[in-house]
Each structure stands twice: as C-alpha cells, then as structure tokens.
C-alpha cells in the first residue's frame, strides 16, 4: 500500500479499510483470489462495522455512564422482587419511540441505578442518544444556568435527547427557580421523549421537595401519563467487604 493511498484513506476517514487493506491485498495473490466484488464488499463491510462501533462508543462516552452495568451483569437472582422478564421486555426499547417514561422506586442499593444504566446502555447501542445525570447535578446545572443566561440552551439540549436518565431523585434542597426549570424541561419532553427516573420516594412525596402543589400535580400528570412504574423491594445489593 503506497503512502498516497494511506493518505487518501485517512482523508476520507476510511480508517478500517486503511488498517486491513494490506491483509486483503495479499488474498488477491492466493490460489483462489476473491473476485473484485468480493474484495470490495469485504472492505466496505468491515468499514461499516467499524464506523457503527465508533458511533456507539461515542454515544456511550457522551452519555457519561458512571458504571459498566448491563442486563447480562445484573444479579436478578439476588433481587427476587424484580422480575427479569419485565426488565427484558423494557429492554426491547419499545417505550422510546412511544415517548413513555420509566420510574424505578426503591430503597438504597436495591438496583435502581444498575437497571436504569443497563437500559440506557441498550438504547445507546441501538442508535439512540442519551445522558445519565444525578438529580443533584441536574438541579445544580439548572441553577448555574440562571447566572450565565444559558438556561434555554441547557433545556434545549436535554429536551432533545432520546433518553434522559435522572438518578437519585430524592429530598433535595431546591430553590423555586430550579423547580420551575425542571418542570419546563419535563413539559418539553412530554409526549416527545422518554425519561427514566430513579428515586426512593413515592409520588406523593414529591410535593415535599418540589414545593409548588399545582406545579407538582401538573408535573406528575405528565410524567405518569405514559409511564411504567417499577417498585423494587429487596435487599441492599452493595455487600460490605469482608
């Protein structure tokens, strides 16, 4: 392979073809060389697979997953209150094009975050754009955005994600401005995009930290309109070190 060819393949971003071309060219001198169409198909097939994998890894990186959870690694046997069949049905991802929400309710360490990350990872692997964010970080960013007048830009970014995972929604010390921005975000995602929320609070408890009763009622009405609520009652999966 000549230097010119290497440079051209690099400019065209055909990196996989560049890496395998010498190998495939050697096959053309064998006793049973591939036809021209077979040779070209092999190059294009590997380039396509490589680009697909690169895009997937890029989506996973941008989603900021904190842990490498997957459905295959989740210990369903240790959490009998969580039916694996229900989760694997959700993993078909039909809830995303339907703009349905998922809410996982349960105590500390029961697996809410692990299951949610697993579903988000599955979505990313299937071409959807998503983001993992802790509820506290979300509300902190919302408050910060008021200072530099970037609230509209921040809402637009989050509102257009195919799947937004908000982790550890709980008793947070919120200002009214933060609650208002959160309501606006959920209003704009309503009927358009799917949201996953993990929380240790029942829905009635949301009034306690979001404050405005009428706003919370409107928020819960939108959130729960097309929503799968999964309650996990079981042991803490975070076993202490011996």
What can you see in these coordinates?
With 242 residues, the protein is of the alpha/beta class. The chain has two domains: 3-63, no CATH class; 71-232, P-loop containing nucleotide triphosphate hydrolases (Rossmann fold, 3-Layer(aba) Sandwich). Helix 8 (176-189) links the parallel strand 3 (163-169) and strand 4 (194-199). The protein starts with a helix and ends in a 10-residue tail after the last strand. The longest helix has 28 residues, at 36-63. It has helices at residues 3-11, 15-27, 36-63, 84-90, 112-125, 135-147, 151-159, 176-189, 206-210, 213-225; strands at residues 101-106, 130-134, 163-169, 194-199, 227-232. The chain has a five-stranded parallel sheet. Helix 2 packs antiparallel against helix 3 (36-63).
Secondary-structure map:
Blueprint (H helix, E strand, L loop, with lengths): L2 H9 L3 H13 L8 H28 L20 H7 L10 E6 L5 H14 L4 E5 H13 L3 H9 L3 E7 L6 H14 L4 E6 L6 H5 L2 H13 L1 E6 L10
Parallel strand pairs: 1-4, 1-5, 2-3, 3-4
Helix pairs in contact: 2-3, 6-8, 7-8, 8-10
List keywords for this structure.
alpha/beta; 10 helices; Rossmann fold; 242 residues
Q: What's the CATH H-level homologous superfamily of the largest domain?
A: P-loop containing nucleotide triphosphate hydrolases
Widest sheet, order of strands: 2-3-4-1-5
Order of helices and strands: HHHHEHEHHEHEHHE
Query: Whole-number radius of gyration?
Result: 23 Å
CATH topology of the largest domain: the name is Rossmann fold
CATH architecture grouping of the largest domain: 3-Layer(aba) Sandwich
Oligomer: single chain
Let me know the number of strands.
Answer: 5
CATH level 1 class label of the largest domain:
Alpha Beta
Report helical residue fraction: 40-55%
Q: Helical region count?
A: 10
Straight-line N-to-C gap = 57 Å
Estimated structural class: alpha/beta
Can you give the mean pLDDT?
91
Model regions low in confidence, pLDDT < 50 over at least 5 residues: none
Strand percentage lies at: 5-15%
> Could you give a short account of the major beta sheet?
5 strands, parallel
Structural domain tally: 2
Structural shape: elongated
């Amino acid at each position: 392979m000549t230097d010119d060819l290497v440079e051209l393949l690099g400019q065209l971003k055909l990196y996989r073809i560049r890496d395998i071309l010498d190998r495939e060219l050697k096959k053309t001198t064998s006793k049973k060389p591939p036809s021209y169409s077979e040779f070209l198909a092999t190059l294009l097939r590997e380039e396509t697979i490589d680009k697909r994998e690169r895009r997937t890894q890029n989506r996973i990186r941008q989603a900021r997953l904190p842990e490498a959870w997957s459905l295959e690694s989740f210990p369903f046997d240790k959490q009998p209150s969580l039916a694996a069949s229900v989760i694997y049905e959700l993993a078909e991802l039909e809830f995303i094009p339907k703009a349905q929400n998922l809410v996982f309710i349960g105590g500390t360490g029961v697996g809410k975050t692990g299951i949610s990350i697993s579903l988000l990872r599955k979505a990313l692997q299937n071409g959807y754009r998503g983001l993992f964010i802790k509820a506290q970080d979300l509300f902190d960013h919302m408050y910060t955005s008021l200072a530099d007048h970037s609230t509209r830009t921040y809402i637009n970014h989050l509102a257009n994600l195919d799947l937004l995972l908000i982790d550890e929604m709980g008793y947070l010390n919120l200002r009214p401005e933060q609650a208002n921005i959160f309501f606006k975000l959920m209003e704009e995602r309503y009927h358009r995009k799917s949201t996953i929320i993990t929380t240790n609070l029942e829905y009635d408890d949301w009034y306690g930290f979001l404050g405005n009763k009428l706003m919370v009622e409107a928020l819960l009405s939108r959130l729960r309109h097309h929503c799968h609520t999964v309650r996990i009652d079981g042991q803490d999966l975070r076993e202490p070190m011996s």
